[in-house]
Structures are given as C-alpha cells and as structure tokens.
Sequence to fold (150 residues):
Amino acid sequence: MSMTFLPISINISEQQILLVGGGKVALHKIKLLKRFTSDFKVIAPKVLEEIKGMDGVEIEEREYEEADLKGYLLVYATTDNHELNHLISIQGKQYGCLVNVADNAVYSDFVSPAIYKCDEFTIAVGSDGRDVKASIALRNKIRDFLQNSF
Ligand SMILES: C[C@@]1(CC(=O)O)C2=NC(=C\c3[nH]c(c(CCC(=O)O)c3CC(=O)O)Cc3[nH]c(c(CC(=O)O)c3CCC(=O)O)/C=C3\N/C(=C\2)[C@@H](CCC(=O)O)[C@]3(C)CC(=O)O)/[C@H]1CCC(=O)O
Ligand SMILES: NC(=O)c1ccc[n+]([C@@H]2O[C@H](COP(=O)([O-])OP(=O)(O)OC[C@H]3O[C@@H](n4cnc5c(N)ncnc54)[C@H](O)[C@@H]3O)[C@@H](O)[C@H]2O)c1
Fold:
C-alpha cells in the first residue's frame, strides 16, 4: 500500500502524550520525545523500572481500554501485541487521536522522523516509514556536515 506522510510541526505545549505499552520501545520513544516535552502517561500491565523513574511520566499499571484514548491528540501504540496496536489505531479515529503504531507504519496516522535538533532549529529526516535505517544514516550525515561547517 502506498503511504503519504505530510511533514508538519505540532504544538504539543498543552498536550499530554499517551503511550500504550511500557517496554523497550516505549522507553526509547520517551527518551527521544523528552527533547520536546515531559508530560506523558504510560498504560501497561508491566512497565519498565527505568520508565517508572522518569520525571513527568504518569504510570497506570493495567491493560489498555478504549476509553483511555479520550482527550489525547498523540498516542503511541507500543505493545507487543500486533492486533492490539492495530485496534488502538482504529479506535483512535473515533476519539480524534493521531496514533503511531510502533510495529506497522501502514496503520500509523504519523511516524517519527530521525531528528537533529540544534537550538531553535529542527532537522527531520523521514522515509515515509519505508527505511528507518536510511533515515538515521542521512540524519547523521546532515548532523556531521552541519557540526563541521560552523
Ligand atoms: C527515526 C526513529 C525516530 C523515533 O523513533 O522517534 C524511528 N525509529 C528509530 C530507531 C530504530 N527503529 C528500529 C531500530 C532497530 C534497527 C535495527 O534492527 O538495527 C532503531 C535503531 C535504534 O533503536 O537505535 C526498528 C524499527 N523501527 C520501526 C520498525 C517497524 C517497521 O519498520 O515496521 C522497526 C523494526 C522492528 C523489528 O523488526 O523488530 C518503525 C519505525 N521507526 C521509525 C522511526 C518510523 C519510520 C521513520 C521513517 O520514515 O524513516 C517507523 C515506521 C514508525 C515509528 O516508530 O514512528 C528512531 C531513530 C531515533 C534517532 O536515532 O534519533
Ligand atoms: N518503532 C520502532 O522503532 C520499533 C523498534 C523495535 C520494535 N518495534 C515493535 O514494537 C513492539 C513492542 O516492542 P518492545 O520491545 O517494546 O516490547 P516489550 O515486550 O519490551 O514491551 C511490551 C509492552 O506491552 C505491554 N502490553 C502488553 N499487553 C498490553 C495491553 N493489553 N495493554 C497495555 N499494554 C500491554 C506490556 O506490558 C509491555 O509493557 C513490537 O511489536 C516490536 O516489533 C518497534
């Protein structure tokens, strides 16, 4: 299926971000998102200790239910259950959420680019979910070029 993703910059200053799933991928996402915000909720039966120790992260140690989506603009579905991650993206539509499905770009309303942040400038490289390693490699090249140019 062909996918088209529009690069935009979203104002999240008034938004808590919801992560369903509290494992390795959730931890990775929160670390990256911390460059921009520190207001998160994590819902999962098992949440990594490292996530529990982070500032700005509310934890609910239980299974996801549909009503959890209420009020969220951005949702990351990061559970190890592919069907559940897909279901969250479907249910998100009814609540006006934008859902990132960690194991499937096709079901994602948004995907995260590889980012180089330098003061007020953000350089983001994406492949429309097709080749994350190539995005990371290109971001690193751009970062190295800029760091050596100024
Ligand atoms: C750029 C970055 C941003 C971020 O996460 O915020 C990002 N992934 C990062 C890292 C990373 N991801 C993976 C590895 C291990 C690689 C290895 O195997 O060595 C590493 C490396 C690492 O962890 O260092 C594996 C992986 N990733 C996805 C899948 C599933 C799939 O492809 O279907 C699998 C395979 C799972 C499996 O097979 O098990 C999916 C997605 N990952 C994306 C973004 C989106 C596409 C972006 C684009 O359009 O190019 C998309 C589609 C959805 C999304 O997540 O939004 C961030 C770099 C942060 C940085 O360096 O700053
Ligand atoms: N996007 C990416 O960058 C990327 C990278 C690697 C892997 N993945 C994919 O991400 C997924 C998660 O991987 P992981 O390594 O974080 O797994 P993990 O096993 O570390 O964590 C899984 C989490 O899901 C939670 N969970 C399970 N059932 C749940 C439910 N009903 N409600 C709420 N939470 C529930 C568990 O409690 C746990 O916190 C896998 O499908 C993997 O293929 C994505």
